[in-house]
Amino acid sequence: MAPHDWLLFAVFVLFAGITVKPLGGYMAFVFSGRCASNPFLGLFERAFFRLARIDPSSEQNWIDYAAALLIFNLAGLVLVFGILLLQGLLPFNPQGFGAVAPDLAFNTAASFVTNTSWQSYAGETTLSYFSQMAGITVQSFLSAATGMAVAIALVRGFARRNHETVGNAWADVTRAALYILLPISIAAALVLASQGVPQTLGGPVNATTLDGTNQILARGPVASQEAIKLMSGDGGGFFNANSAHPYENPAALTNLFEIVLMFLIGAGLTNTFGRMVGNERQGWTLLAAMTVLFALGLGIIYSAEAPGNRHFAPLGIDQLAGPLQAGGNMEGKEVRFGIAGSALFANVATDTADGAADAVYDSFAAIGGGMLMANMMMDEVIVGAPGSGLYGMLLRAIVAVFVAGLMVGRTPEYLGKKIEAPEIKMAVLALLVLSTTILVLTSAAVLLPAGLAGLSNNGPHGFSELLYAYTSTAATNGSAFAGLNANTPFFNLTLALAMLCGRYLVIVPVLAIAGSLAAKKQVPSSAGTLPTDSLLFALLIVAIVLILGALTFFPALALGPLAEHFSMPQLF
Q1: What is the Cβ-side half-sphere exposure of residue 489, based on CA atoms within 13 angstroms?
Q2: SS (H, E, C) 223-244
Q3: What are phi and psi of 215, to 5 degrees?
Q4: pTM listed for this prediction
Q5: CA distances from 53 to 45, 47, 49, 50 (A)
Q6: Both ends of the chain: CA-CA distance in Å?
Q7: Distance (Å, rounded) from C-alpha 82 to C-alpha 100?
Q8: CA torsion 16→20→21→25, rounded to 10°?
Q9: Which alpha helices (H) appear in 60-137, and where do they start and end?
Q10: pLDDT tens-digit series, residues 419-450
Q11: How does pLDDT run across 16-68, given as a tens digit for each residue?
């Protein structure tokens, strides 16, 4: 590994790490409701709640909380769907784009409402500025706020005792968007704009290239969408090339800044969890488990890409790093980022459920692309998107406590709450959603002509393209192996189904667990209680994540990226 690659990884870890405690403390302050007493912050909150007729002190049980979030998200789905269908009649459309096809409009609406950001279209040639701002960008805020609200409800379940309620969904979503997502995204947008990311309502411009030809340059309100897409876990690109486009990600500095943005809230929420349950070490334990899994994935991806394509060597192609080139497998990667910047971005994006990409994942080596899939198959609990990463990891922690109790005969308790049949049933149900959705829909795509028609490759890589698509959508990531032609009615509808199942069939069991835990009394620790704030428990969670992922998905990975990797020598 080159020294500058080590430096990049170290700087990322440093900047991501130093934000955890202060941001985690601030989010605990916000979700505890103390922001309402602040003379400045409380002014906006009280005005909004009065306008929306919301009483934040009126709390809900888990059923009412879940119903509120589902209704809210359904309204967002209908709104975005309507905006896309009526796009040609709406303002801020200097490109003159017409209505989006119904199946694509439904897929896109489901994508951004579920915090997935799967895009079966090229943004600069399909969506107007109004659709980008009022549809895509707004849902990036609201979908992230929904995930954060669910996570906070689950945290309250652990923190409370003998309670019938888990909070107020309307208040939690509002506070997440108003006090956390909006201020950080404004600051981030200003930073990106200062580095050359466009922020304008002006239409495309014509430019004359060096060889004298005319080129149309798309632009628009990019910086504002870029900031929230990265921070929210949505990841949808204003341009088809996403963060590989120089208008979304101009330089190595913005690349590092965008990677940190993806980690920001998900990592900070682990500290918020520790503070709200009264033991910060619990949060550090979860973050330690995430860090081990993150380092494992980054090591595999980098080691797969850095040596380059071994089959190029007999052709005399130089793939070594030097003053004039980054070296390694540079197919599909930007020279301004190199292997280290691309590998780090890809690993963070698939760890955080963020569909952003600064390289073409379809061009990664078989093992590198397989690791990207594996990150998502672990349900993106390695920091994850805002909220969903935390509650996904807490589901694994619940399973880890139960398994440890079975192995050593200790009481299955977590944070003073007995883990009993209702919690385990709901946790297992939530964990089964991802695997069932991915494997069933991938199988259907492999068997049906409509699914095979979208492939641009045969054999193991073609299977990997299908597997990646359904993994990405069910795990609410949204990135893609770009070789798949997904803009067909079959893929638009089945991928939308994967997104809806992967989001809402997980949220409901999580909230059921929150309600069950909140109603329980606190059990004092005893000699039979398993310590859950230690490195040993963090490693136990890592083992649970890896074992569950391997048992479920290894056969599918063996048919795709592993088969491609081991069959490559036969091609030469």
Answers
A1: 3
A2: HHHHHHHHHHCCCCCCCCCHHH
A3: -130, 135
A4: 0.93
A5: 12, 10, 6, 5
A6: 28
A7: 10
A8: 140
A9: 62-85, 102-113, 123-126, 129-130
A10: 999 999 999 999 999 999 999 999 999 999 99
A11: 999 999 999 999 999 998 877 777 777 888 888 888 888 888 999 999 999 99
